[in-house]
Design brief:
7-stranded parallel sheet, alpha/beta, 6-stranded parallel sheet, 372 residues
């Protein structure tokens, strides 16, 4: 009897406690690996949202709670035992901390390391950084804009691959109900601009608030929805009041259903000033066919075709962003063109493309090893 091939087993590492774009990508990647006949294992902190969702999806989860994020020795030893016991072929990490864990845990094993980087900021050029990233057999950047940051840290170009993030296209989110929107203060039928982001300096939500003020000069009925939470929440609430926008700009707090709020939007906005790779909020908007207004940051121009699938503006220019929002709302042919352009652009960023390309990286490393 012919022995069945050993399934490709991939250990995905994540020590973040939040549910954000990177965690969505890991969950979808694990599900995609399984569709290809592989076996995903997630090593995560106890009780985090990704662990709950992974278990619900039937993915094996191993709890890790490193006291020292970069290298927690007990965590390293536990991961090494898992790699050996479960015959892990690939260790997949996507943050600096988990790259350190992957590098240390895989020492003395046959596991290959794949590091997927979602931002475009340059890596630190110190010796520990160079050591841990030198341990990665392949480094994936989600945009070509992020490749330079890897090369500057001494990563050899032949080890780098570009694989954009993706989103599911077959089951777009249903728009939030009028009742849910009303609970935030948005009247039925009001034009709505939505920003989904952590309320942090890198995402620059203050520019969104000021852009809504600018847009309302031309579209007085406009409402803005800030979907997310973070350290700037209190200062944003104060700014909203100071600008006389109480009742027009609303803070929803953290939501597990941001896609449904995007689906209810007249326009999706990104005001980030951090070096984004392929922002998930824009990928969601493409799949939904919602007009987009975004800042020109990181890999955004690789996602959005300016004037075709969205409008791209300068970072921090609230007046220009506000005018662009108003233009989309007042120019119906423009909105229709951007919506159609978004839907046409979306298939390039299908999660199936992401899964298939990442699987290609795995198999490139493993060669003809007999894994599926």
């Amino acid at each position: 009897m012919t022995e069945a091939p050993t399934p490709l087993t991939v250990l995905y590492l994540d020590i973040n406690t939040e549910w954000r774009g990177g965690q969505r990508q890991l969950l979808w990647m694990g599900e995609g690996l399984r569709r290809h006949g592989g076996r995903p294992i997630f090593a995560l902190r106890s009780g985090v949202p990704l662990a709950k969702r992974a278990l619900e999806a039937g993915i094996q989860v191993i709890a890790i709670n490193p006291l020292i994020a970069e290298w927690g020795p007990w965590t390293v030893m536990r991961l090494r035992r898992v790699i050996r016991r479960e015959r892990v072929s690939i260790v997949h990490a996507q943050s600096g901390h988990t790259m350190a864990l992957a590098a240390l845990a895989s020492l003395g094993t046959r596991a290959k390391i794949v590091f997927a980087r979602r931002v475009t900021t340059p890596l630190r050029a110190n010796r520990p950084t160079r050591w841990k990233y030198a341990r990665a057999d392949r480094l994936i950047s989600v945009s070509t804009a992020g490749v330079e940051g890897l090369l500057r840290a001494g990563v050899k170009p032949e080890r780098v691959r570009v694989v954009p993030s993706g989103v599911p296209l077959s089951t777009p989110a249903a728009p939030a109900t009028t009742e849910l929107l009303a609970s935030f203060g948005v009247p039925a039928g009001a034009p709505l601009a939505v920003l989904v982001a952590s309320l942090s300096a890198a995402k620059d939500p203050s520019t969104f608030v000021r852009a809504i003020r600018a847009a309302r000069r031309e579209v007085p009925a406009l409402h803005g929805l800030l979907v997310g939470d973070g350290p700037l929440r209190d200062s944003l609430a104060a700014e909203i009041s100071a600008l006389g926008l109480d009742g027009f700009v609303h803070l929803t707090g953290f939501r597990t259903d941001p896609e449904s709020l995007e689906a209810a939007a007249s326009v999706v906005v990104l005001t980030s000033k951090s070096l984004e790779g392929t922002p998930g909020v824009l990928l969601d908007a493409l799949a939904l066919g919602i007009p987009i207004v975004t800042t020109n940051v990181g890999g955004v121009p690789e996602v959005i075709e300016d004037g075709t699938s969205g409008l791209i503006l300068a970072i921090g220019d609230d007046e220009a962003i506000g005018r662009a929002i108003a233009r989309v709302l007042l120019d119906a042919p423009l909105a229709a063109r951007l919506s159609a352009g978004a839907r046409a652009r979306a298939p390039k960023f299908s999660i199936e493309n992401t899964v298939n390309s990442t699987m290609g990286v795995y198999h490139e490393l493993l060669g003809a090893s007999g894994t599926t």
